[in-house]
Amino acid sequence: MKPLDSAPLDTESGRPVERGASAPGAEGVSRERTRRPAGENAGNPKGIAEEDPRERVNRRWNEILQETRVAQTGIQILFGFLLSVAFTQRFERLGDFDHRVYVITVVLGAAAIGALIAPVALHRFLSGSRMKDEVVVVAGRFMVCGMVLLALTIGCTLLLLLHTVLTDLLAEILVGTVMAWFAAAWFVLPLILKMRSGRRAD
After folding, report:
1. 157 vs 151: CA distance, rounded Å
2. Which residues, in sequence order, are CB contacts of 113 under 8 Å at separation 6+?
3. Among 54, 66, 90, 112, whose CB has the most other CB atoms within 10 angstroms?
4. Contact status, residue 186 vs residue 147, Cβ threshold 8 Å
């Protein structure tokens, strides 16, 4: 005879249950564990659970933090490069126009850093004040402002560099092309996708 100690026992009769067969009531327990509240998936054909407002604002805040880290890394590297340019020997030989472009570029870079770090300062000073919804909204606007300033900083940096190796007209054409690409990839395309999504929702 096969040993019965390893076989599961029926909780009501005390008899062993054959392998491959489910114990009485197990199916009901399994169904009970996976049962969702009525109406949870209403209007949600994929069965994805809806977020409550607190989960949604926490998710949006975490997304803003991730986006801020990426943008901050780029602007900090670029700003460090700009600061080092002023101490090179070739900088003194630049014309008045290039000097003005450099000053504008440094100011734009500093403003971009301020806008991209602002969400962190908002969270630190308003932490515990139960204003996370407002913080997320304002932080999102600072992120958009910082991205605009970052794009302008990159454009001015390119103009400053290309002026030293190309003719003025060619440098300006290339910078204009790059800026148009930034505008299309960073702002126009997301707006188009958002409009299409809104039309599908209607």
Report:
1. 10
2. 72, 75, 76, 79
3. 112
4. yes
| pTM over the 0.85 mark | no
User: By the 8 A CB rule, do 117 and 72 touch?
Assistant: yes
Q: Would the pLDDT of 39 be above 80? A: no
CA atoms within 13 A on the CB side of 178: 16
> Where are the domains positioned within the chain?
72-192
Q: How far is CA 31 from the centre of its chain?
A: 38
Q: What pLDDT digit, counting tens, does each position of 41-98 carry?
A: 444 444 445 777 778 888 888 888 888 888 878 888 888 888 888 788 777 777 888 8
Provide the residue type at 186 as one letter: W
* Closest residue by Cα to residue 160 from 106, 80, 89, 110: 106
Query: Could you give the CA distance from residue 140 to residue 147 in angstroms, rounded to a whole number?
Result: 11
